Every structure is written in C-alpha cells, then in structure tokens.
Write the structure tokens for this entry.
Amino acid sequence: MDITTIEEARTRIAPYVKRTPLERSEALTQRIGSNVYVKYELFQKTGSFKARGAFNKMLTLSAEEKKRGVVAVSGGNHAQAVSFAASVLGIDAVIVMPESTPKNYVAATQGYGGTIDLQPTMADAFAEIERYRSAGRVFVHPFDDDLVEAGQGTVGLEILDDLPTVTDIVVSIGGGGLAGGVATAVKSKRPDVKVWGVETEGADAMSKALAAGHPVELPAITSIAKTLGAPAVSPATLALAQKYLESVTVVSDAEAVEALSFIFERLKVVTEPAASCTLVAAEHLRSHFTPDSNVVLIFCGGNLSVKDLCSYL
C-alpha cells in the first residue's frame, strides 16, 4: 500500500461512501488546551470507517470472485461494513463472529443481508475462515489487506483536504488498518504531521507488538472496546506503526467511558469506547501540543447499543 493506492481507493469508493465532516469542537479545545477538531467517521455508512475498506476490496473483485461470494471475520463494525457492501454490490457474504459479539452488531449485520456464523471465540472465528476459503469464498480481512487499508486511508486524505494546517492526528488501533492507512496517506503528503495511536487496556495488541518487535497474540480481549479487539496485529500493520506512528498510548476502560460521557453531553454524539479513547489519549499527550496545535481526533465508530451504554454508566 502506498499513496497511489489510497488515492485510487478514494476515486473507486466515492459513489458508495459518505465524505464525513470534520469540525472544530470548542468543548474539546478547552479541555485539551489546543485547537481540537473531530473527524466524524461515526456518521459513515454502517456507523464506522469500515465501509471504506470493504467497498475498496470488493469493488476490485473479478466477476468470478464475486460469484463465489465473500467471507469475513469480525466482532462488530467490519461485519456490518462487509455485509452492507456485499448487499449493495450483489455479492453473497458470510460473516464469522465470536459468540461474545453484542446482539445489536449481530442484528445489524443480519439486517444488511449477511449470513452469520457464530463461533466460541475470536480465535475460533479466524480459524473457521479457512473452511470458507477452501470452498472458494474470498476472504475480506478486517485489516491485513492492502486494499482494505487503502480504503481506510482515505480518511487521512479527507483530513488533509479539510484542515491543511493539521499538526497532529489521534487514531484508534484495533488491528492497525485504520491507523496504518491514515498514517501512510498523511505522512506521504505531509511528513511533518504527527500521528498518534491509542488502544485500551485488554485490547492492546499493537503496543505489545511494538514492545516485542513482532506480533503478539493476546490470550483474551478483556476491554469493553470490543471493536478494538483484534487478537493480534499483522506484520504489515506493525511495520506501518513502527514507521509512521509517534507512539501508542494505552488507556483504561474507565477513562474511555468518562470521555464517552463527556462527548455525549457536550458534543451530542454517542461514540464507542473505541472512539472516545482518542480524547483520553489527547489528554495524555497534551505536553506534546501547543495552544496553536491543530489536533484531529478520529471518532471511528458509533455503533453502541443503549444497553451497553447504560451498563457502562
């Protein structure tokens, strides 16, 4: 993946995805002490950035591949994105999900037309993929795929277009596809912009991989931020993090929930913990910013059920 594939992805997926807004937040600016902007990717179709990568991957499939159908593994947002994109493009989709997947994610994925295959754990879900691949289905990986990453990287191009004076970007990391794509897009055009990663405790596969120097499989995902719950990053996304990210900040679930509540009350949007954690990270990183810094927080998703929201609070 490079800037050319990301720019090609933007052209390819433009008819199918939303160009989400980027707006300055006075409340967050006061809280952080720098100019803070929000990239509202939670307003993307299916409620997260994942539709970008799903469409970019499936729009490149051959007629024969489309006929065989696709398969994906996901505990949430990627599942909905693949199911939705497949429905729009007339492709049959099977989505393998862990049994711990929130019911609202399962229902939404089914609503978009995907066939659900529930497995005991995320590791089991990934293992089940091989059976579908051997039957001929094309695997749409949630992050370890250049075309998927390039689709996610279009978020970075939009940030540069809408805020040419951006100095810092804070982005969540699950498997690393969004962070890698955004960082590649931004650093290719503006090497001076700093890109900061964030994870939650118990879903911190990238920070552990960076410390070890190679991908590390988590024994379990214990964070409430289930959409950050990749069991391990890939060698490719790790390499992009090593090359482009300033650091990866790991925050607690409690911090993410407090930030979620603040965002809900002051910005009037409901984010996932996977998105609200960017605000926590920005607070941790405050010493790296100045009053003149232009900091963008990517609110990557908003697919939070009322039941989960109430349980968090």
